[in-house]
């Protein structure tokens, strides 16, 4: 299965991706995680680092090159779940070319729908455990006392507004693009994470009736 999670920052893409990858035995490919890993390793282009920290989008071609390499890894042989890519129509068109070159197609695009007023609150209180990668929320899903917590640079209030604006300006254009292809499934992203998971699975079941 090849599926894409689309949604604004804080809509729960990473939270849901972690559950789905366990369930389907396919990897999560998060361009945000890949960029943060390169940043932590000191190998990220300083220009991209500044763009990320300020809440902007890294240039399309850099992201396309990253995905082009990643989807050839052995763990992708049964499919993968894209989280945070594509984010623009040029990225979506490039993805289609990359997949067509490998005789692959997209099964479903899942749009997590959450109102902007809830997103800021989710992002500002998000913390991630450095060791496990587990995502927490200081109020709704508090971390255990022994977690080694990280606060993302782009989760500071001044960057959060810019990320939400970038989503509305660039990424929202993906929705009509995938709707026209009959791939888009809208999922209400509000409620307990496990309730959202049940809706996501329902939407995937509609994309794969034989698996439901
Ligand atoms: P990326 O890492 O992809 O960030 P994002 O899209 O902004 O999404 P987030 O990771 O912030 O949110 P999420 O939807 O995964 O939510 P989460 O599950 O963590 O990208 C970071 C940056 O990298 C970009 O800004 C850009 O600069 C660059 N980049 C990456 N890909 C790119 C691309 N393709 N092109 C160009 N640039 C790119 O949940 C958020 C919080 O809410 C958590 O605290 C969680 O516990 C909580 N939560 C989750 N679900 C629920 C729920 N149901 N109820 C209550 N709380 C919940």
TrEMBL record:
EC number of the protein: 2.7.4.3
CDD domains: ADK
Residues given in the record as AMP binding sites: 31, 36, 56-58, 84-87, 91, 152, 163
InterPro entries: Adenyl_kin_sub, Adenylat/UMP-CMP_kin, Adenylat_kinase_CS, ADK_active_lid_dom_sf, P-loop_NTPase
A GO term, aspect molecular function: AMP kinase activity
Binding site residues for ATP: 10-15, 126, 135-136, 191
Main location: cytoplasm
Keyword vocabulary terms for this entry: ATP-binding, Cytoplasm, Kinase, Nucleotide biosynthesis, Nucleotide-binding, Transferase
PROSITE patterns: ADENYLATE_KINASE
Gene3D superfamilies: P-loop containing nucleotide triphosphate hydrolases
Keyword RNA-binding: no
Regions that span the bilayer: none
SUPFAM superfamilies associated with the record: Microbial and mitochondrial ADK, insert 'zinc finger' domain (SSF57774), P-loop containing nucleoside triphosphate hydrolases (SSF52540)
Database matches in Pfam families: ADK (PF00406)
Reactions this protein catalyses: AMP + ATP = 2 ADP
Record GO cellular component, one term: cytoplasm
Annotated pathway: Purine metabolism; AMP biosynthesis via salvage pathway; AMP from ADP: step 1/1
Locations listed in the record: Cytoplasm
GO biological process, one term: AMP salvage
Subunit architecture: Monomer.
Role summary: Catalyzes the reversible transfer of the terminal phosphate group between ATP and AMP. Plays an important role in cellular energy homeostasis and in adenine nucleotide metabolism.
Domain notes: Consists of three domains, a large central CORE domain and two small peripheral domains, NMPbind and LID, which undergo movements during catalysis. The LID domain closes over the site of phosphoryl transfer upon ATP binding. Assembling and dissambling the active center during each catalytic cycle provides an effective means to prevent ATP hydrolysis.
Entry similarity comment: Belongs to the adenylate kinase family.
Protein name from the UniProt record: Adenylate kinase
Annotated organism of origin: Polyangium jinanense
């Amino acid at each position: 299965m090849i599926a894409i999670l689309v949604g604004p920052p804080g809509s729960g893409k990473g939270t849901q991706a972690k559950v789905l990858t366990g369930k389907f035995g396919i990897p999560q490919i998060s361009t945000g995680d890949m960029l943060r890993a390169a940043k932590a390793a000191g190998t990220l282009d300083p220009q991209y680092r500044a763009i990320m920290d300020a809440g902007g989008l890294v240039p399309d071609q850099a992201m396309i090159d990253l995905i082009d390499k990643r989807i050839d890894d052995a763990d992708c042989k049964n499919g993968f779940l894209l989280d945070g890519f594509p984010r623009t129509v040029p990225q979506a068109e490039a993805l289609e070319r990359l997949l067509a070159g490998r005789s692959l197609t997209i099964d479903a695009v899942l749009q997590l729908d959450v109102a902007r007023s809830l997103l800021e609150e989710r992002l500002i209180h998000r913390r991630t455990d450095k060791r496990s990668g587990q995502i927490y929320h200081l109020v709704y899903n508090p971390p255990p006392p022994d977690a080694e917590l990280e606060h993302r640079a782009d989760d500071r209030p001044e960057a959060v507004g810019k990320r939400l604006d970038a989503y509305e300006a660039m990424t929202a254009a993906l929705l009509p693009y995938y709707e026209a292809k009959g791939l888009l499934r809208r999922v209400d992203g509000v409620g307990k994470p496990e309730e959202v998971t049940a809706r996501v699975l329902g939407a995937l079941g509609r994309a794969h009736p034989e698996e439901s």
